[in-house]
Amino acid sequence: MEDDTVIEIKDLTVTYENENSSFEALKDINLNVRRGEFICIVGSSGCGKSTLLSVLEGLQGASSGSVRINGKEIHGAGVERAVVFQSYSLFPWMTAVENVSFAVYETNRKRGTRVSKKKASEIARAFLKKVDLTGFEDKLPGELSGGMQQRVAIARAMACDPEILLMDEPFGALDAKIRESLQNLLLKMWREDERKKTVVFVTHDLNEAELLADRIVFMIPRHIYAVIDDDLPRPRNSAYMQESPEYKALYQKLVKYFYRETSELIDSEGGNL
Fold first, then answer.
1. Which pTM was predicted?
2. Which of 26, 27, 77, 199 has the most crowded Cβ, counting Cβ within 10 A?
């Protein structure tokens, strides 16, 4: 494993089985993710994106092959990883600050470090401020809009200071304006973090992948078909990218891979970019 590799996926296969049948969700997946890298995984529905992320979360085991973080094979969830889901996953009976501070307190307890509940609350309020939720700290999730709830979820994940941030279509249920705002917020927090986090971000939105990623992992059913470098200059914003020739060229390449039939791609290009 290379020194800067934090995630190493080798020959990963995941098969779901029951008494009458089996379904192979992933087959022979190989991918290394570098420390501090922002990876976007794209592909059509049912191609295995979320299954791959669930393996990285530790919620789904490998049928064969391995997944290692910092050289150690993962078995279950770990405090070095935090997850942001599309569904927010906030405790509805806790306020915004309580949701974040509880996560901070519990994560540090599992790490074996002592953080008082008062300190956890201070950390929570600081991160809610970073996501522009000052004044909403004591609101319950049901009193917040969907975009605000997702800000709380991002604050919760970042406040726990994980090494790896796993994100499963976190902005997929939001309208375009709020989605763009949260994309920019995520990029800002990732860029300014003293210990830049490694991010694995699942999305079906090609524009989102281009805006966020260092590399884009394009999946077809069960397989990684291509890994594409996104060399567009940072910092990025949607207005600049829409006018950029480099953006348009990369977008056209992604569209080509996204919409063509897989067999046609392999026949015409031999499976190579």
1. 0.90
2. 26
